[in-house]
């Protein structure tokens, strides 16, 4: 199979499997191709060094990178036309000390399959989120590491809110990760001068019922979402923090006062996707095991702070709690311990996802 045909085949298979990333990695004398499926790296193809180099060069050419440059890390993007659909891809290259390039392809704009509720370990936190999303205005923040399902959660909750009535939902993202025809989706383009700040201002003038902000990562965006929540909009956004408590510290670090947060914040959710234990595999459920469906081999563990628990979080922050303060109810680590005790996850998973110094 020639390089172009194999590249099309590779992306077609990856898209069908709903792969989040493709890793093309150099070994001593060859290349291995891995798919990241359900958070786990799984080897799919063996390529000779020549085949691997040609494949990486082909993707670099498509994504407008410098094909001749192999020492300096590069990044690029392109839309790849497959038979059934087009797939938006982001590419990143980096070389090892032997000057062998590796390539990671991130697949974007995967369409949601159906309207199935994301798998979760406990219903209490999910019901809290369903209640919070019905609010007329306020700021609802989600946090969690990369590939923890934040976008999927936000989209599903907002889509459910729209059932039976037409609402204006605008998303501001960089990049758009999931196609949703019922939302007005706009994408940041720094090169064209279309920044988060510019899009947020324009979106608020559009008077949305719900505004989804892909990521709050700078001071201007943080202040903008707070301003939007104060003017009567429901803002749903994500921000990187270690846990639910860390979201408040992160927002304050970005210049939002504790007083403003108390006025606008209606809830915080920290989440992570945990691989589910399978008695047939006697380990995490493997990709090709039929005991759990392919899209249900991981489940979300949510920590939600709202109402009384959110007020307690504000109070603790105001008093600058000491390390000896007893943990709050239903914190992530306590829920994780509960999941492990029930036998839903392995001991290895429990230790891996435990948050240190929570």
Automatic annotation (TrEMBL):
<dbReference type="Pfam" id="PF00437">
    <property type="entry name" value="T2SSE"/>
</dbReference>
<dbReference type="InterPro" id="IPR001482">
    <property type="entry name" value="T2SS/T4SS_dom"/>
</dbReference>
<dbReference type="InterPro" id="IPR027417">
    <property type="entry name" value="P-loop_NTPase"/>
</dbReference>
<protein>
    <submittedName>
        <fullName>Competence protein ComGA</fullName>
    </submittedName>
</protein>
<keyword id="KW-0547">Nucleotide-binding</keyword>
<dbReference type="InterPro" id="IPR047667">
    <property type="entry name" value="ATPase_ComGA"/>
</dbReference>
<keyword id="KW-0067">ATP-binding</keyword>
<feature type="domain" description="Bacterial type II secretion system protein E">
    <location>
        <begin position="204"/>
        <end position="218"/>
    </location>
</feature>
<comment type="similarity">
    <text>Belongs to the GSP E family.</text>
</comment>
